[in-house]
């Protein structure tokens, strides 16, 4: 029998209430600056792109503008491509991969696509290097009508007018050692269930949509990333994080059913990236480069098969 991992907040087997959430919140510390790391980079792109403030998070005493980079020459006859990062604020290369792509490659697609890049969906969590928002809610299980997460609701409002025209959506994530040392034990404690340890995959992998899989698209992204960093192998059970590996470096989830970010549009081509920054085989810079390679490959494939 698996016993709950000890966690310093709450009572084993009992879901958290408001007191436990408040106790958890007092332990969250600001480690970095959203304004310095994200907003300043976005501001420098204003000469080439439109910058849209699509919402604001008011988490006293902090307030965070939510920003997206958008093609200046938006045309109704062009396919829409959506890039999102930082749904989980602690997943650093997702944020900086989205920004790096916007800085170095987005202009290459001018006149060919309508592009939207939302680089940091969860700025409060980015600053605190955390997975949840201050209400202990995971935004990446909350992309649905009546969302309990302001971060998720704001992104849904951003895409509402053009969601049905999105051809490709790539959502940039990481899987880290803290998934097992902190975040999954915290989740088990929050929900009052037993924590069951799992392996952290060593390498890059993708999550396809099990309800409308696109295996050729996923493999095109994997092939591009393999030139930058290593692809995660299956574990001894032929799985990655408890899901069967359907192709090298690819698993599947029902994205919309689970309320995941990559399921917010009916796009033909969708994927969630996962890279492992704690691996001795890679570096933070390689992880960012892998995210950029994934975005470019995803857009290129979607354009070629539109």
From TrEMBL:
Cofactor: Zn(2+)
Record's keyword terms, sorted: Hydrolase, Metal-binding, Zinc
UniProt cross-references to InterPro entries, sorted A to Z: AstE_AspA_cat, Peptidase_M14
All residue ranges annotated as the Peptidase M14 domain in the record: 30-306
Recorded family membership: Belongs to the peptidase M14 family.
Protein name: Peptidase
